[in-house]
Amino acid sequence: MSKLGNLSDAALAAHLAHEAGRIALRVRAESGLEGRGLGDEGDRRANEYLVAALREARPDDGILSEESKDTEARLSKSRVWIVDPVDGTREYGEGRSDWAVHVALSVDGAPTIGAVALPGLAGGTVLRSDEVRPLEPYDAAPRFLVSRSRPAKEAVAVAEAMGGDLIPMGSAGAKAMAVVRGEAEIYLHSGGQYEWDNCAPAAVALAHGLHASRIDGAPLTYNHRETWLPDLLICRPELAGQVLKLVSDLPVSE
Questions:
Q1: Separation CA 211–CA 42 (nearest Å)
Q2: Is 98 annotated as a binding residue?
Q3: What is the pTM of this model?
Q4: Has 108 been labeled as part of a binding site?
């Protein structure tokens, strides 16, 4: 068995997320590229590493990656690794810090193991489902993380109803981990994502005691034939009921 193969699933996820982030940073520093071209190259190089490492370490598991051609082979697997080599390609290409690397293991459709690397932060932060920090108490207006360019209408409406503040931020992983890190309380998204956008963030959030679900309260499940996942709520557990009720009370768009 390879050295990577000797690692636990959680340790493997964290190691791969960290290393893929280092690769992306090296591409950004050394390639001379910028913008879309930089994003494409960082995605490609990080994905090559992740897929090769997973095939070496867990040859019997399935893989779903944003940057690899999908096949039906994973659908018959109980264990499927779901990865996003660079989540927030735009932010990465712009030289910002609010992008992430996602490595998750879905077991029978559940987001079981996850690691989200935030390579743009000092020290190359990796948040893991097996290393849990307690949630800090808070007593203030809730902070809502929203897209830099397209804040979800539900998030805007719920924030107004709760007297909350909107905080624009880049990638889905960066926003979800900001809730884990105590930098905000609610990430409510309805603009559409794919399984690789939120499987690792959901696994990490759930492990840390946060609420993670669809915005109608349904559980998040993975390894479907159709990888589109329209909406997501990650928030402090004590706020989940209020947020879900407010969302359900919103008028249905025609």
A1: 31
A2: no
A3: 0.96
A4: no
Are 148 and 117 part of one and the same domain? no
Q: Is 214 exposed, middle or buried (0-12, 13-18, 19+ CB in 10 A)?
A: middle
Considering the domain architecture, whether residues 92 and 148 belong to the same structural domain is answered as: no
Q: The domain containing residue 172 runs over which residues?
A: 143-249
Number of domains in the chain: 2
Known binding residue 231? Answer is no
CA angle in degrees (0–180, nearest 5) for 206-212-217:
140
- The one-letter amino acid code at 37 reads G
CB 61 within 8 A of CB 79: yes
Distance CA 183, CA 205 (A): 13
Distance from C-alpha of 170 to C-alpha of 100, rounded to nearest angstrom? 9
Tens of pLDDT, residue by residue over 13-70, are 999 999 999 999 999 999 999 999 999 999 999 999 999 999 999 999 999 999 999 9
Q: What CATH number is associated with residue 59?
A: 3.30.540.10
Residue 136 lies in a domain: no
The whole-angstrom separation of Cα 235 and Cα 144 is 9
pLDDT tens-digit readout, 169-224: 999 999 999 999 999 999 999 989 999 999 999 999 999 999 999 999 999 999 99
